[in-house]
């Protein structure tokens, strides 16, 4: 339930950031112009709310397809939190890097968290499939 709740909150945050950013996006020179570093990274941060929110909803929906023993393990707990950590970190990193190009290395945080979550969920679901889950 945590991931689905978080996912919908994160998607709503995407609507809010879009509304805030939308106040200036109509201007050709907003944030240095359409192809500027700052504007591209800010757009990416805004979209990251939607993408990572949806990923968290998919994690929660996956849980409904698996048995209780699978979703109440330490591995599931770590995987679930990895998706949340990655989701929180991605827009923050985008907005930081939009302002300070030297902040690019912080992208390792969401990339590692989301990749870890994806690998773990892949293993969990593959194992369930091989064990005969529907």
Compute the average pLDDT.
Answer: 91
Q: Helical percent range? A: over 70%
Our measurement of the CA-to-CA distance between the termini, rounded to an integer number of angstroms, reads 21 Å
Tally of contiguous helical segments = 5
Write the layout of secondary structure elements.
Elements lengths: L1 H20 L15 H29 L2 H4 L2 H26 L8 H23 L4
Describe this structure in words.
The protein is mostly helical and 134 residues long. It has one domain (2-130). The protein contains five helices and no strands. The radius of gyration is 17 Å and the shape is elongated. 28% of the residues are buried.
Tags for this model:
mainly alpha, 5 helices
Short account of what is shown:
By secondary structure, the chain is mainly alpha-helical. It is 76% helix and 0% strand.
């Amino acid at each position: 339930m945590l991931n689905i709740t978080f996912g919908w909150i994160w998607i709503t945050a995407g609507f809010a950031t879009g509304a805030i950013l939308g106040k200036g996006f109509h201007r050709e020179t907003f944030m240095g112009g359409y192809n500027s570093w700052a504007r591209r990274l800010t757009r990416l941060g805004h979209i990251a709310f939607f993408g990572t929110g949806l990923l968290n909803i998919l994690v929660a929906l996956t849980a409904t397809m698996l048995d209780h023993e699978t979703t109440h393990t330490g591995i599931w707990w770590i995987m679930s939190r990895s998706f949340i950590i990655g989701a929180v970190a991605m827009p923050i990193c985008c907005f930081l890097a939009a302002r300070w190009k030297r902040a690019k290395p912080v992208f390792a945080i969401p990339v590692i968290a989301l990749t870890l979550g994806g690998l773990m969920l892949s293993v969990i679901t593959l194992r369930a499939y091989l064990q005969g889950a529907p």
